[in-house]
What we know:
By secondary structure, this protein is of the alpha+beta class. The protein has 3 helices and 7 strands; from the N terminus they run αβββββββαα. Mean pLDDT is about 90; it is low at about 165-170 and about 175-180.
Amino acid sequence: xxxxxxRLFGDPVLRTKAEPVVDFDKExxxxxxxxxxxxxxxxxxxxxxxxxxxSLRVFTYYVDGELGHLVNPTLDLSEEQQDGDEGCLSxxxxxxDTRRAMRVVAKGQNEFGDPVIIEGSALLARCVxxxxxxxxxxxxxxxxxxxxxxxxxxxxxxxxxxxxxxxPVKESPHATHGLAF
Length: 181
């Protein structure tokens, strides 16, 4: 287990759709542990594998005292919506009011390949949607209205970390079919 550097806005891995996990092996369990340790150290409510440079469909979360992870998620979203501040470890220091579904039912697998269902509302629903977006190369700023997005992009250009060099690329131990680092 090791705390990994978190990729920042501008790193191409954050805009790349992650590959499904097909090997539920020791390397995947190490990835889940690294994600969990990095998320807790940051600290954050969630962390997706692309945020540490691994283009696989895995994320961890820690919301309201509940710690978990999900592999290969699919989401069923409520029609009821919520608005609330949202930030991202890959866009440090920024938070904007973002609209999300109020409730989510997320289906996927755990690190051993067993089926998992996560049902949540409010903050857990927001977190699961945010992290699943990361797996599709979508950032929360992509969900902002035009005016808020302009403000977010301005804040990104002015951020003290803007233009920082990307951390070294770590090769994924999993078959990525040429779509991951």
